[in-house]
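Researcher: Following up on the earlier apo prediction. This time include the ligand. It's flavin mononucleotide, with the SMILES given after the sequence.
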Amino acid sequence: MNAYDAILTRRSTRSYTDAPVDEEQLNRIIEAGRYAPSGGNSQTTHFFVITDQEVLKELAEDAQTAFAAMETEPGMYRSLVSSINRSKQGNYIFYHNAPVLIVLANQKDYGNNIADCACALENMMIAANEMNLGTCWINQLKWLNEDPVITAVFRRYGLEENERIYGALAVGHPATEDGMPERTPLPRRGNPVTRIG
Ligand SMILES: Cc1cc2nc3c(=O)[nH]c(=O)nc-3n(C[C@H](O)[C@H](O)[C@H](O)COP(=O)(O)O)c2cc1C
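Model: Understood. Below is the ligand-bound prediction.
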């Protein structure tokens, strides 16, 4: 698959098998993220690659507790409302039970923190698609990036005082009949293009 096809056929996967991701493939995905461009070549994105299922379960429980304590408000971002409501119901696994979650942090006072993480996330999504692996951008830890309990988990593994989480990526084998990622692109209804000249 060439790069252009990998970009155009990337879709979000929200159902995964328990099968672990091959170590060599995982390393290639991480390297694809590390080779993303960064503002001023700052290279300050910090990659936490979580394959320890106990840590993932701990994060799921902590996130559920944090979301369940929130109240929805009119005009609130739809996905956040969904996280709050599902957490209040219980059994909310924000990372779709993927066997791997790659969490990206960056310096909180750096103006390109989210942009750099987004570049790394997209690179990793494209690389994983080329390897027939599924991925999904996971935003919940960004919303909770001032939560003391979640922060304490990442501090244990080296999250610096001046770092915050800006995005995450679920990675794994898609739980589809043929084990391949869904690849039919969604029709483009938005993203208008204005050509000048
Ligand atoms: C900034 C951003 C945040 C997202 N957050 C989540 C998320 O928290 N959970 C999730 O399941 N999908 C999330 N997504 C995936 C989008 O819902 C998905 O890309 C969109 O519906 C289009 O579908 P596709 O990826 O299959 O083309 C996010 C995507 C982006 C770019």
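Model: The pocket of flavin mononucleotide is lined by residues 11-12, 14, 79, 136-140, 186 (CB under 6 Å).
Researcher: Noted. I'll compare it with the apo version next.
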